[in-house]
Amino acid sequence: MMKFFTTLIIAIGLTASSMVAAQENAENPYELVQSVAMKTFDRMKNEQAAIEQDPERLRQIMEQELLPHIDYQFAAFKVLGKHFRSVPKEKLAEYVKVFREYLITTYAVAMGYYDNQTVQFEPAGSIDGKKAVTVRAVVKDPVRPDIKIAFQVRKSSNTNQWKAYDMVAEGISLIDAKRSEFESILRQDGIDAVLAIMRDKIERPIELNADDKKAKAESAE
């Protein structure tokens, strides 16, 4: 599951490796995804020394650069699926708040795995009269097969701004994956159990290249 999340989140930023500079444009979803990506990875490169010294810095970068362009509340409700109506109203605000921090942590953890991948985006399509579009791309990895990805982006009826709410890798949706993971927990134990799981992940420290460290430790045994 972590490799799935890693692919999705890395894909947000890797356009910086394959595009020219673009102005951030919340009115065009294709330009938005790419410009946010460039800003995020430029900042990571500029602060690389600080990140290596303190990986927790990745949380701050993700919150400031990525999260403003993600409709985390819409995504949070989509993850609940049919259980949305069974969650007490007083718990929904708490759930959305924790889900926001959970996403920040997920992005920060995934960015700690970055290792020279690049992304090639397909040509932009028309957005005339549309309220939702799919931004498609391919992740290029020097040592692994290409991975097809897609970003689901929707236009807010309140602000007319575009924000991403889901990401898909090889046909697997992040929202669907989390909904599947939490469905039985919601059914059996309720929203408090899901909140506990998310908080547990949030509280874990961010590590860089955690898989590499684990592999080295195992080989040394």
From TrEMBL:
Keywords: Signal. InterPro entries: MlaC/ttg2D (IPR008869), Tgt2/MlaC_sf (IPR042245). Residues 1-21 form the signal peptide. It comes from the Bacteria. The keyword Signal applies. This is ABC transporter substrate-binding protein. It comes from Alteromonas sediminis. The lineage of its organism: Bacteria, Pseudomonadati, Pseudomonadota, Gammaproteobacteria, Alteromonadales.
